[in-house]
Design a protein that fits this description.
This protein is an all-beta fold. It has strands spanning about 10-15, 20-25, 35, 40-45, 50, 65-70, 75-80, 90-95, 100-105.
């Protein structure tokens, strides 16, 4: 799946520990960047990215809207336990068309 990433806003993986992925989002634009709590997980297979479906269950997201002011950064953590035990591979977490890649060994 191709992403239409936001210009001048970037996300990078800070830490992967157990089922928590910590990322840093930097807004280098001159406009605020808005985001919510909804995210998805993708896996890279043969050079292509595919959405990882969550396990069956009662999963959901609250729908607040946050704003990251121009020129600022923030660190957020995402719990990926709804995807179960993931096999080794290259993954990325996607939030509002931003992505941060990480490896599971």
């Amino acid at each position: 799946e191709e992403l239409a990433e936001s210009p001048n806003v970037s996300m990078e993986t800070v830490q992967v520990k157990n089922a928590l992925i910590s990322v840093k989002v930097t807004n280098a634009s001159d406009m605020p960047w808005e985001y919510g709590e909804r995210y998805s997980l993708q896996v890279e297979l043969n050079g292509n990215w595919y959405i990882v479906p969550p396990l069956p269950g009662n999963w959901g997201f609250i729908l607040p809207l946050y704003e990251l002011p121009a020129g600022e950064s923030i660190e957020n953590s995402y719990n990926i336990e709804m995807y179960g035990t993931l096999p080794a591979g290259r993954y990325r977490i996607v939030v509002e068309n931003l992505s941060a890649e990480f490896e599971i060994n």
